[in-house]
Amino acid sequence: MGIPVSMTVNGKAVAAEIEPRTLLAQFLREHLRLTGTHVGCDTGQCGACTIHLNGRAVKACNLLTAQAQGAQIVTIEGVAAANGELHPMQAAFRQHHGLQCGFCTPGMVMAALDLVKRQPNPTEDAIRAGLDGNLCRCTGYHNIVKAVQTGAAAMKG
Amino acid sequence: MYAFEYHRPSSIKEAASLARKLADAKLIAGGQSMVPALKLRLARPTAMIDLNDLPELRGISVVGTNVVIGALTRHAEVAASKDVLMTLPVLAKVAAGIGDHQVRNMGTLGGAIANNDPAADYPAALLGLGATVTTNKRDIPADKFFTGMYETALKPGEIIASVSFPMAKRAAYIKFRNPASRFALVGVFVSETAGNVRVAVTGAAPCVFRVKNMEKALASKFAPEAIARIRVPADNLNSDLHAGAEYRSHLITVLAQRAVEAALSGK
Q1: In this structure, what are the phi and psi dihedrals at residue B198, rounded to the nearest 5 degrees?
Q2: Ranges for all domains in chain B classified under CATH 3.30.465.10
Q3: A130 CB near a chain B CB, below 8 Å?
Q4: B102 contacts on A by Cβ (under 8 Å)
Q5: Which tens digit of pLDDT belongs to each residue from B94-127?
Q6: Global pTM value
Q7: Which residues of B touch A133 (CB under 8 A)?
Q8: A114 part of contact set with chain B, CB < 8 Å
Q9: Residues in contact with A127: Cβ distance below 8 Å, sequence separation at least 6, in sequence order
Q10: Staple B75 to which of A42, B95, B183, B243, CB 3.0 to 4.6 Å?
């Protein structure tokens, strides 16, 4: 039995009929073809699927799509400017080589943006604590921390 | 994940009536424990009743000497609440230490206590403060609420509305995290409220519990050394690949002393 859902994703209204058990990550990737939201562990631990739901970072593999009914969703595809220019946080990841294989990066960027919104001047400790829900299997945390610091500074400028 | 029906009631009454009517239905709030349980097929409800359209279950207020928190209030909201930080900072600290930031943005107080995971943090805070759970039917003291592993006093069709926490003269919660899962291997909550001392332990046994001989010792002298020699016997404690029962027993005494120290220093 399908249920209707509607929400705003990256500024666009979307509506669909889905099976109730459809996860939000699945809906974004398979129905909307927004494959920038990665599914790493599928158990709510790795954070690669992090998106913003009504402005808060959440793990899209750990939500039913129905729980996002009526919500404002932003995925990694909605972060850069319309002309393709990278968001300062994305540019900082590139500048500091804050990615190796790049699989965790969309989730890292989405979590970092939420962190900087709460703490505009995060210390290294605050960044490491704030990214507790995001794992990098390449273990490239050092450059990720540097990228978030630079990204946070650039976002103020 | 098995298929289920989905309902999104617009009143507590409707939610309660659905929960009574539908066999094997589950309530979902934040879903941060529920969705993983569905995926692992540990939970196989035939219907999910989503409580997210019930704003009356949300919010934080200070009522006399109590902090009242709606069941649908997210952990991140409790952690950042000025009211909670001013009146019962230990509770903000408990909420700020649950899971990770993304989980705290979805997970709710009501969901956490209804689930009653043996290693969850909020049950220790409720029992350690002597909080009261208010449902759509009645008030349940924390001492009667947590009844066993993943078991509570909630009856079918009963929905948690809020929890009322008494403010404490001093209180602290210290947990020893499993380094991989970040869940409490053992967590100890200590509080002193108007001459009443409570010590609650999570993570160590199938269900959160109080340590009454520590409470008695702390009531006569609220200092770490008062409980340094009190051990909870290992007999009924959890033993698993993360820690043996003897080690958990040892941790309870160590963490309880640290919690008393932290409560005294106000940190």
Answers
A1: -130, 145
A2: 5-166
A3: yes
A4: 47, 50, 57-59, 62, 111, 133
A5: 999 999 999 999 999 999 999 999 999 999 999 9
A6: 0.96
A7: 99-103
A8: yes
A9: A112, A115, A145, A148, A149
A10: B95
